Amino acid sequence: MNINVSIKPGNRIRAFYLFFIIFDIQMGVGVIGVPRFIYMEAGRDSWIAILIAYLYIALVIYVMFVILKKYENTDLFGIHADIFGTWIGKLISTIFIIHFGTSFLSILLTYTEVVQLFAYHELPNFAIAFLIMLLVLYAVFGGIRVVVGLSLLLFISTFWLYFILYDPIMRMDWHNFLPMFQTSIPELLKGAKETSYTLVGFEILMIIYPFIANKNKAKLPAFLGLTLSIFTVLLVTTISIGYFAAEGLKHIDWALLILFKSASLTFLERLDYIVVMVWLMVILPNLVFLLWAISYGVKRVYKVPEKITIWVLAIFYLTIVNFFHYDYQIGKLTDLIARYSFWLIYVYPFILLIFVLIKKRKRRQGSEEA
Amino acid sequence: MWKKQKPKNKGISIFPIKIDTLEKILIDKFEGNPDLKFSRYTVSNRNVVVFFIDYQIDMASIQQSLLQPLVEFDKNGKKLTNETLMNSIPVNSPSTSVDIEEILNGLLIGKVYIYIEDEKTAVDYIFAKKESRSLEKAETESIVLGPQISFTESLSKNMNIVRWLIKSPDLVLEEFKIGKVSPKDVRLVYMKSLANDDDVQTMRQRLKELDVDEVEDAIVLKQYIEDSQNNLFPQFDITERPDRFAYNITKGKLGVLVENSPSGFTAPATLFSFLESTEDLYMRWQAGSFLRILRFVAMFISILLTPTYVAALTYQYAIIPTQILISIGQSRVSVPFPPIFEALLLEFLLELLREAGARLPTKVGQTMGIVGGIVIGQAAVEAGLTSNILIIVVAMSALASFTTPSYLFGTTIRLIRFPLIILAAFFGLIGIVFGITFLIIHTLRLKSLGRPYLVPLYPLQIKDFNKVFFRTPFNHSSKRARSYRPKFIKRFSSKDADQIRDIDE
Amino acid sequence: MKTMKICLILVSLLLLLSSCMESFQLENLGVILTRGTDITDDGEIEVTLSLLQFVKDSPNVNTTIRGKGKTVKGAVRNANTKTNQEIVVGKQELEIYGRSAAEKGIKPLLDTLRRDANVPNTLFLAISESDASSLFNVQDPGISANLGEFLHGLIRPGEEKRIFPERSLPKVAALINTPGIEPTLPILGMKEGIPSKYGIALFKEDKMVGQLPLKDEVLVQVMEGTLREHYYEMTIPIEMVADYLSDKSHAKKNKNVNMVYIVEKGKGNIKLKNKEKLQFKTTINMLLNLLEISESLKLDNPEAIHGLEKEIENNIKKRFEEILSIIQELNADIFGYGVQYRIHKKGGELTTEEWNRLFPKIDVEIDVNVKIIRHGEVHR
User: Fold this and answer.
1) Partner residue opposite A248 with nearest CB, options C14, C21, C174
2) Are B329 and C23 an interchain contact pair (Cβ–Cβ within 8 Å)?
3) Shortest Cα distance from B270 to chain A (angstroms)?
4) How many folded domains does chain A comprise?
5) Which among C22, C168, C170 has the least Cβ separation from residue A244?
6) Which residues in chain B have their CB less than 8 angstroms from residue C23's CB?
7) Which of A352, B146, B180, C67 has its CA 20 to 30 A from that of B296?
8) Which of residues 312-341 of A touch C (CB under 8 A)?
9) Which helix (H) or strand (E) element contains residue B435?
10) Is residue A1 part of a domain?
11) Residue numbers of chain C with a pLDDT score lower than 50
């Protein structure tokens, strides 16, 4: 396997698209339910927990950039092959590919559940998954440029969702945040950890990095994208705490969608229906990026053509969604991902950094001796 | 279709030949064509023959400037050869030909041949007479302000207009011949100093490698050389307005004119270029921006309004405010069909009206529109076939679809509606979102002359937004759109344009 | 050709899939606008539904039907057997609980509203002065033709004007759940055969424990936050403003002065003064605009205005103290003193039990500031 990849000029993307990529992949089904999880741990001071998560993720992204800078033009799979050799490298790369695969499944299932809950309770899992898969396949077959373009366009076409939040903001009760700074630090850290399922996804940076044309300008857009998604999580959590009282929020599964429920316009009511449907546009970049990353990864690691991976996975997913019927199954899957992705995404880059630094130093010494 | 054309083998000379044999060959080749005129003369003791097809020829001028000098050649006592003949005939650009195929083709485009017996070549002059319509007002893309002239079927007239609009030596009109059976003159028009070389090369190649028997019109040629023919969206921008054509050329795009076609097309096009009208430039910038944004809104209304009605009435009744719900419900209750059928029926009726109106002569067509719109609509409501709210919805979306400056694109929008209505009827709002997302992916995948179709939205070029989505005053648009990658971005100095010159000191 | 085939397969598959969906065509629906819920003596739930129902050639779109069942949804299904249309909740605007149901506790009845994603959050809650079903027995043809909307209009007169009686579902649910503050709901009742606003229901958690007359809505609303554009009628004894009367003789003729103001802006505020002694301070600020007064006062004299302001302040203060004693007796902290207590408590946690114990003991100092900033075209 080649450690460095060469990308055709036509497939390169400008660095500022990282803003949309990072933001879009972090926003998905996670943000709908995250206020409850953070609140359960960090209580009224959830906003501090989110800010802690922000600082930590910024650090992780920084570490990712440091690792990537050590190489000429490579991705996570190339680094693994370089550091751990062929077999262990393949193994760790496979773990990441499986991580993308399970994330894909959990997003697909959660959104299916939301659609069934809010609008079409008689529509089978398969039908919704089938509709979504059609779009995902159509986009992924368009290649990296279409995938990135989709994230940009869907970002633009869903941005108005922020404005609907004006209504719950007006109905907030600020007393729910007082008194501040009462939560202990371990609880805050736990709260920060609860964001892991929602905010995970930025590891796509290590996959998409070789495709970026002007790499020296990549940092700022990545951090800005992170900032916007943290801002969104912060906004949603804050409004939820203010809007639902303490006890209420602990029992609400889809806080964000319920926030949209009270908004209405003079010519359109029940915006929550529209939001639930439009949320398809929010999760679609997620799915598309994940499937693209899987197919690209499989091609890099096992040299299987992308087309085969994509078709096999599509059939696999369309089959497996039919076996999930209970809410708790989906909840368990989400929990599982939250738990291991904490180690895989939040902790692992530091370990990788240490290995990369040691390896590079050795290599430099080796070359100096020679 | 894209096969490389074989290089033509230069014909073997048939000359020198006896005049009788020549006549026989020609008549053989033009079997059943009595219009080939073959007149023999004897000048300076040599047999001379003049032949042409009479209706392709301007008879008056051939009499005066060709036949007369020929007959009177004897007077100066020179020996008659090709050279002396050419010297004595006061018509420009004579040429000689030896190949019989070349002569036949020449006859068709209005050449007159003179052959002096036993010479090695035949001399020919162009006396082509071409009937064409005079210049008229643009009909399909009419605007209120600005030049009203439109292209006509004559290529030379069209080129003449374009030349006068762009008086620059940079303007290139490259010639191509397309069609094997009946070749047509095609001109690739661009600004040498502006147009992107890659684009020019791509277009040239597509034109050159096109292997078809004939092209009927510029619109047909456009479809042949577009990036994807199966696509619903037009990928090149066709226009009958020379000012729109010239505007695009001066912004660095390429244009193509086709013989006998009253329209030209420009490339590369984007989704948004179909919503631009040159009228936006002729308006003040505020009005121009307003109109342009209006057209964008109209496009969305046209695509989304009827599907939303269907989705709301089939599944998501709750999104309609209660007051409107009551009036919709009251008018819906007497309709025996489901909303989808009702909507399709009315949309179909409207399309029928539009199609019939387009086929009928103008005066009758207008009456039809009124009769159809008012009488049938009213009757349909009273007969309980549709609800009156739907009439408003459908009329509004039809009206919105007519605001598109490009007729071709307007048709696309009208067509897109139908799958969306069906999706809405089967899946409700999520069907519409699905459809819209599908269209977004679809347009993302589209290319026009190898360039992305959604530029400047993707790839994002925020600096070009003021040329596409709205309009800024001219001193703020000192640069050309980057999206089309012209060779020079700068149009004029923006500093200079900002200066106020008329304040008294 | 290949693409065509794929398209055909896809389309037919989509059609197949969608066939399993239940459609909600508007003309086949009975759309609930207002629902009344009562608990009968034998413990069953009885619902009264004001439906939007479309019948051909009938201008009347409103029908009222009843149903009984063990659960709210079950009662609605039961009602559904009496109509040929599918009853749906997607546009429900108002839920009215009968008094006896409210006194038993509304939490079990709220469950269906919170659980069902189709119920809008703009739904308002109200209490009926007697049985909820009685509100639907309207004889007036003008009102009964549009009953559902009419009842909703009582609660929400103007678009986007968040004035008192409006109590939306999430707000009530939140208040029930929050220790240290109790919800209030508007009471509707029949007056001369027409449903009208009646008073304010006081809740202890989810149980109705008492009520206040409608005229106190200004004070309740002011304590909730900012109040704008609200009418406020009050009566003060005439001797208090006798000095400023244009015609002093009136002081002997009449006993009271009646006035109506518009509250341009009113704001209430609670502060904890002493945590150990449970001392609170309540401040009420109001800007008033005089609309009508039964006696002519010398309003061009600033002193007259100040005197009038003072009298109003006393009036409000007195009423507020009365309300406080009522709610302390009921142990229903509708103003949220407990929230202030919680905020200043260490750890910021307060249990319902703790506040139940403490609330009757609290001591409140009331400070009312009133400014009459306008008095119309004339000053006498």
Assistant:
1) C174
2) no
3) 15
4) 1
5) C170
6) 314-315, 338
7) B146
8) none
9) helix B429-445
10) no
11) 158-163
Q: Is B2 helix (H, G, I), strand (E, B) or coil?
A: coil
Find chain A residues with C-beta within 8 A of B326's C-beta: none
Burial class (CB in 10 A: 0-12, 13-18, 19+), A237: buried
**pLDDT tens-digit series, residues A32-50:** 888 898 998 888 888 999 9
Q: Out of A171, A176, A270, whose CB is closest to C120? A: A270
Average pLDDT over residues B97-118: 83
Strand duo C29-39 + C86-88: pairing: parallel
Determine, for residues B321 and A267 on separate chains, whether the beta-carbon distance falls below 8 Å. Answer: yes
Would an 8 Å CB–CB cutoff place C23 in contact with chain B? Answer: yes
Banded pLDDT at B5 (limits 50, 70, 90): very low
Residue C364 DSSP SS3? strand
Evaluate whether B110 touches B130 at the Cβ level (below 8 Å): yes
List the one residue out of B268, B274, B232 whose CA is nearest residue B450. B268
CA-closest candidate to residue C123, choices C170, C64, C182 = C170
Residue C380 falls inside a structural domain: no
Cβ-Cβ contacts under 8 Å, C24 against chain B: 314-317
Amino acid at C33: L
Using a CB–CB cutoff of 8 Å, tell me whether C12 touches chain B. Answer: no
Distance from CA of A185 to the nearest CA of B (A): 43
pLDDT digits (tens, 9 = 90+) for A154-186: 999 999 999 989 888 888 888 888 788 888 888
Q: Are strands C194-204 and C226-227 parallel, antiparallel or unpaired?
A: unpaired
Interhelix angle C2-18/B407-427, rounded to 10 degrees, is 40
Task: With respect to residue A165, please indicate whether it lies within any of the assigned structural domains.
Answer: yes
Q: Which of C152, C182, C214 is the last residue of a domain?
A: C214
Q: Return the residue in A44, A173, A187, A241 with the most chain C beta carbons within 10 A, the one to mutate for interface testing.
A: A173
The boundaries of the domain holding residue A166 are 9-369
Residue B175 main-chain phi, psi, to 5 deg: -100, 140
Peptide bond into C59 cis (omega under 30): no
Spell out which residues of chain C touch residue A178, defining contact as CB-CB under 8 Å.
343, 348
CB atoms within 10 A of CB B9: 7
Strands of B207-338 (E only): list them: 237-239, 254-258, 264-267
Which of A 218-257 lie inside 8 A of C, CB atoms?
243-248
**One-character DSSP codes across B309-352:** HHHHHHT-GGGS-HHHHHHHHHHHTT--S-HHHHHHHHHHHHHH
Q: Are residues C182 and C229 in the same domain?
A: no
Q: Where are the domains of chain B?
A: 19-126, 155-269, 281-452
CB B491 within 8 A of CB B479: yes
Same domain (yes/no): C266, C138: no
Q: Quick one: which of C63, C212, C226, C78 has its CA closest to C144?
A: C63
Nearest to B321 by CA among A268, A116, A330: A268
Look at residue C206 in the predicted model and tell me its pLDDT: 87
**Domain range spanning residue C152?**
26-214
Domain boundary among C183, C214, C245: C214
C331: domain CATH number is 3.30.300.210
B503: pLDDT confidence band, cut at 50, 70 and 90? low
Q: What is the pLDDT of residue B3?
A: 45
Give the DSSP letter of residue B406: -
CB contact under 8 Å between B433 and A14, yes or no, is no
User: Residue A288 pLDDT > 50, yes or no?
Assistant: yes
Of the candidates C240, C207, C213, C229, the one whose C-alpha atom is nearest the C-alpha of residue C104 is C207
**Cα(C222)–Cα(C217) distance, integer angstroms:** 8
Tell me the pLDDT band of B1, cut-offs 50, 70 and 90.
very low
CA-to-CA distance for A125 and A111, rounded, in angstroms? 10
Chain A CB contacts of C348 below 8 Å? 44, 178-179, 182
